[in-house]
Specification:
single chain, 18% strand, five-stranded mixed beta sheet, six-stranded mixed beta sheet, flat
Length: 573
């Protein structure tokens, strides 16, 4: 934030040199590098450089492509040297980072857009650039780390690589890049087998997808669905039967055999572990629900133990359905999937870190494990299967014992730099001349216990205390004036928070959830408040109610298992 009247980022070319010089002498600007200044005079120059790196690079290297080793890093802005494809020849020296231009072809359709008119090299360009280097300069450890972290679709990448090599003038590297893809395919086979997921041929994957999406079918129907020959379907069916992935339907009558997904294919689990209650859902690979468990415990540590016991029991009960393939553990704390165990310590869940919670769950080896924030799971459920299905910009606003939000923007789940995106409890509150913001004050103000405390504090002495939010909502539903007025005022306060989220994120829909937020009276009050600010944003109650988080968790686990086995996620019709 600027503290001197100047913006946080100032380019000398856009201002009079004498004005810049005078501001420097007076201490109203600090110099970051040649031609770059900042009005934020208290933050270290290197911190500002990292914070505004894309804007700086976009100013001096417009339409550049971040490439080479920089494009293979999880966070290119953390590199000591940032390599960009650009015609400019002279490097740009900045505090903590040097931007080095390299020759090459400009942005291509496969490259990904970055802020400030920049681009990130596509996986295909990265591979071709890597194998264009002299052999002695290749960092194989970086290559394999990048490949393992990226989760790239090998076949799609291979199919487009020759065209990219031609467009990028990298045809000399094509053979080695293709050989690397072949090598990774071979290395992936033992790993798949060890996790209970054998590597299937393309024809077997397509047949299995068809049985998941459209249900059981005869060989003739599979031929028609997929446009395959009889011999291709027959060999694919035999392969799936060999792995016990499909079976013949019993009692289907005479005639052609009817095939369906086998019960023993495997199953996935979603585990919503909160602060006082937990819920587990198990589903088969085609999405059918196999089990639902829910329990409550006042102590977070005991709740985690109860969840561990329930998972162990489910593994015993569901042995007939094959191996546990994947599990998503939803936690009420910030989490990033690429830094799964870095959740912030805090008052939630007895201060246990995600790593400590996973250790206590004692999950079996070989199972694909996803750790995700609970409200992020809830918004994933609504976007994939619920009220917000098909929308790309959605916010899930949860109001109950605590408050939180999950954010989908541009079709992607937003985590933030450290997993804290959507942690609205941390918003400073209140802002006034009489009071100063305190830790989690907004949560204390909007969570249901804080509201009840304020309501009881200002009630007339002759009136009884309101001891339950459920009771108050029931009275308001019945038309009691005092209760209706209290709920309307409370919903308006939540609506103001929704307005803030809309101002920052501009979602197409806000989905209301939580033990309080999903109530129709609260939804109506939020909708009324928001309509005056943004009539273009829809407000709706969660389609899944209290199961929103666990439904999203099991869906993420299901997609992970399907991607591992089939190469992509599919849904039953």
């Amino acid at each position: 934030m600027a503290h001197s009247g100047w913006p946080a980022l100032v380019f000398a070319a856009e201002h009079d040199a004498a004005v810049i010089s005078r501001a420097l002498r007076r201490g109203r600007l600090q110099r970051l590098a040649r031609g770059i200044y900042s009005g934020d005079i208290h933050t270290p120059a290197e911190t500002l450089t990292r914070r505004y790196l894309w804007e700086i690079v976009g100013h001096f290297f417009p339409q550049a492509v971040v490439a080479g080793p920089s494009a293979m890093q999880p966070d290119p802005t953390a590199c000591a040297t940032l390599y960009v494809v650009h015609p400019r020849r002279r490097p740009l020296q900045l505090p903590g980072v040097t931007v080095t231009p390299v020759p090459g072809v400009g942005p291509q359709p496969e490259d990904s857009p970055l802020p400030a008119r920049l681009w990130l090299a596509s996986p295909g360009r990265c591979l071709l650039d890597f194998f264009s280097q002299p052999e002695a300069e290749r960092d194989l450890a970086r290559l394999h780390a990048w490949w393992q972290a990226g989760g790239f679709e090998r076949e799609a990448l291979r199919a487009g690589l020759a065209g990219q090599a031609q467009a990028l003038n990298r045809t000399g590297a094509l053979a080695q890049a293709l050989a690397f893809l072949d090598q990774t395919a071979q290395l992936a086979m033992p790993q798949a087998a060890s996790s209970g997921l054998p590597a299937l041929s393309v024809r077997a994957r397509l047949l299995m997808e068809s049985l998941i999406i459209e249900g059981s079918a005869t060989q003739s129907e599979l031929m028609t669905r997929l446009g395959m020959s009889k011999s291709t379907v027959s060999s694919g069916v035999q392969e799936l039967q060999r792995h016990a992935f499909i079976t013949v339907v019993e009692g289907a009558g005479r005639g052609a055999q009817l095939y369906q997904l086998s019960q023993q294919t495997g199953w996935v689990l979603g585990a919503d572990i909160g602060n006082s209650q937990a819920m587990l859902i198990a589903r088969s690979l085609d999405g059918r629900q196999l089990a639902l468990r829910q329990f409550v415990h006042a102590a977070s540590v005991q709740l985690v133990k109860a969840a561990a016991d329930a998972i162990a029991a489910l593994r015993q009960e569901l042995t007939a359905f094959g191996p546990l393939l994947a599990i998503t553990v939803a936690l009420s704390k910030p989490v990033r999937p690429d830094i799964q165990l870095s959740g912030r310590e805090g008052p939630s869940q007895a201060g246990l870190s995600p790593e400590a919670i996973l250790a206590r769950l004692a999950l079996p080896a070989g199972v694909h494990i996803i750790v995700e924030n609970n409200v992020n799971c809830a918004v994933a459920a609504e976007v994939r299967l619920g009220i917000a299905k098909g929308l790309k910009d959605v916010v899930f606003l949860q109001i109950g014992e605590r408050i939180g939000s999950g954010i989908y923007s541009g079709g992607m789940l937003i985590h933030g730099a450290r997993g804290g995106a959507g942690e609205i409890a941390d918003i400073p509150f209140p802002w006034s001349e009489q009071e100063s913001p305190g830790e989690l004050m907004l949560e204390r103000h909007l969570a249901k216990q804080g509201f009840l405390d304020r309501l009881n504090a200002r009630r007339a002495p002759s009136l009884p205390m309101v001891r339950s939010m459920d009771a108050l909502l029931e009275r308001a539903t019945g038309g009691e004036p005092m209760a209706m007025q209290a709920i309307a005022q409370y919903g308006e306060q939540i609506g103001f928070l929704a307005c803030g989220l809309v101002a920052v994120l501009d979602p197409a829909m806000i989905v209301m959830g939580g033990s309080v937020g999903a109530n129709w009276l609260i939804v109506a009050a939020v909708r009324k408040t928001l309509a005056a600010f943004s009539p273009h944003t829809t407000v709706a109650a969660t389609q899944f109610g209290p199961q929103a988080t666990v439904e999203g968790a099991v869906q993420l686990a299901l997609e992970a298992a399907q991607v591992k086995l089939l190469g992509r996620a599919v849904r039953r019709r």
